Automatic annotation (TrEMBL), chain A:
This is Fumarate reductase iron-sulfur subunit. GO terms for molecular function: 2 iron, 2 sulfur cluster binding; 3 iron, 4 sulfur cluster binding; 4 iron, 4 sulfur cluster binding; electron transfer activity; metal ion binding; succinate dehydrogenase (quinone) activity. Residues 3-96 form the 2Fe-2S ferredoxin-type domain. GO terms for biological process: respiratory electron transport chain; tricarboxylic acid cycle. It comes from Nocardioides guangzhouensis. Binds 1 [2Fe-2S] cluster. It catalyses: a menaquinone + succinate = a menaquinol + fumarate. Pfam families: Fer2_3, Fer4_8. Its EC number is 1.3.5.1. Its cofactor is [2Fe-2S] cluster; [4Fe-4S] cluster; [3Fe-4S] cluster. The keyword Lyase does not apply. SUPFAM superfamilies: 2Fe-2S ferredoxin-like, alpha-helical ferredoxin. Belongs to the succinate dehydrogenase/fumarate reductase iron-sulfur protein family.
Length: 247, 133
């Protein structure tokens, strides 16, 4: 095996560049090195001006998402050897504005997320004296998959609908809405439905399914969205057919 | 250009017109969407067929003659290919949209997919029996 691999990194320096360009670096090709290790090597040894985000290095924090060879990936969980002999292209996550080099602006998601109220909503809070809300293993299993999201934004980068229509609420936010809807302790489904039934909500999705394919945590946002559509459709039919008292 | 003005110097990358050719999965998705047009055509064609049958022997014969024309055969072969794509893709997506529980346990996706093919086979067999007998 060659002992080096070429990494082509998209660079954008807003103070100098009118648009992003490419810069090439040759880095050691080690079997235990990820794309993030390569970038850190560049930053520490070759070019300290390179900007990128990371934190945990173990697929937990969700901050190191990048497009590697055109696919949204966690760069800390993507091994260089999978792209040998190279070169391997590293770009900022697609569909988000680029702030600098590999750093993208995810404010749009941070603004959308609270709109779907991803927290437990109760009609009436129990007092602490009443004790905790108990949950059976089955009740936990009902939503657990959707609770694994690490907000890495790979699904937004993979979603062509979001790319074409940035108003679309998007995969992770809807999966998180579903996570709370399915939680036996929650009573806020109605409030979330009001938000997600809008045109930019679940019906924006055309079921491309890429979000599910790229999700590193197997959240299956596409599944969550289709289940939500089914729920929304049932509600609409009920609202149409049943007098108010029976809904 | 597509860059924002003012203080915001972040760069917005335009989505290329041919984005759906960039990935196999995007391409399959667009073809799946396109297949709906062919579904609509075959439904219409079926209705025309039923009408021809209803109008008697001569109309039925005319319909068959038209159906044998090369351009209609070509169109229907293409439409059939799209129908197969439509069926396969949507069947395989169903378990994601539908969670079926039997006695508290989630039915595995593969069983739901198999169920759909079994139902399709049953309906096909019934229609074949109806037509042939
Ligand atoms: S749903 Fe998956 S891909 Fe999307 S933000 Fe959450 S963990 Fe990342
Ligand atoms: S650095 Fe935390 S997920 Fe990659």
């Amino acid at each position: 095996m060659a002992d080096e691999i070429r990494v082509e990194v998209a660079r954008y320096r807003p103070d100098k560049d009118r648009e992003p360009g490419w810069q090439e670096y040759d880095v050691p090709l080690r079997t235990d090195w990820t794309v993030l290790d390569a970038l850190n090597h560049v930053k520490n040894e070759v070019d300290s001006t390179l900007a990128f985000r990371w934190s945990c290095r173990m697929g937990i924090c969700g901050s190191c998402g990048m497009n590697v060879q055109g696919e949204p990936r966690l760069s800390c969980a993507t091994f260089l050897t999978d792209y040998a002999p190279g070169p391997v292209r590293v770009e900022p996550l697609a569909n988000f504005p680029v702030v600098r080099d590999l750093v993208v602006d995810i404010d749009d998601f941070l603004e959308k997320l609270p709109r779907v109220k991803p927290w437990i909503i109760r009609d009436e809070e129990k007092s602490v004296d009443d004790g905790e809300y108990l949950q059976s293993p089955e009740e936990l299993e009902a939503y657990q998959q959707f609770s694994m999201c690490i907000n890495c934004m790979l699904c937004y980068a993979a979603c062509p609908v979001y790319g074409l229509d940035p108003d679309f609420v998007g995969p992770a936010a809807i999966a998180l809405a579903e996570r709370y809807d399915l939680d036996s302790r929650d009573q806020g489904a109605r409030q979330r439905l009001d938000v997600l039934i809008e045109a930019e909500g679940v019906y924006g999705c055309t079921f491309v399914g890429e979000c599910t394919r790229v999700c590193p945590k197997h959240v299956d946002p596409a599944g969550a969205i289709q289940r939500y559509k089914l729920k929304a459709a049932q509600e609409s039919v009920k609202a149409f057919l049943l007098p108010r008292a029976f809904r | 250009m597509s860059r924002a003005t003012g203080d915001d110097l972040s760069y917005r990358r335009p989505v290329p017109l041919w984005w759906w050719l960039h990935k196999r999965t995007y391409f399959v998705f667009v073809m799946r969407e396109l297949s709906s047009i062919f579904i609509a055509w075959l439904v219409l064609y079926l209705l025309l067929f039923v009408r021809a049958v209803g109008r008697g022997e001569a109309a039925y014969q005319d319909f068959l003659d038209d159906a044998a024309s090369p351009w209609l055969v070509t169109l229907n072969v293409i439409a059939f290919a799209f129908i197969v794509l439509h069926t396969i893709t949507w069947f395989s997506l169903t378990p994601q949209a539908m969670v079926v529980r039997v006695r508290g346990h989630r039915v595995p996706g593969i069983a739901i997919i198999a169920g759909q093919y079994a139902a399709l086979a049953a309906v096909t067999a019934f229609v074949a029996w109806l037509v042939l007998s």
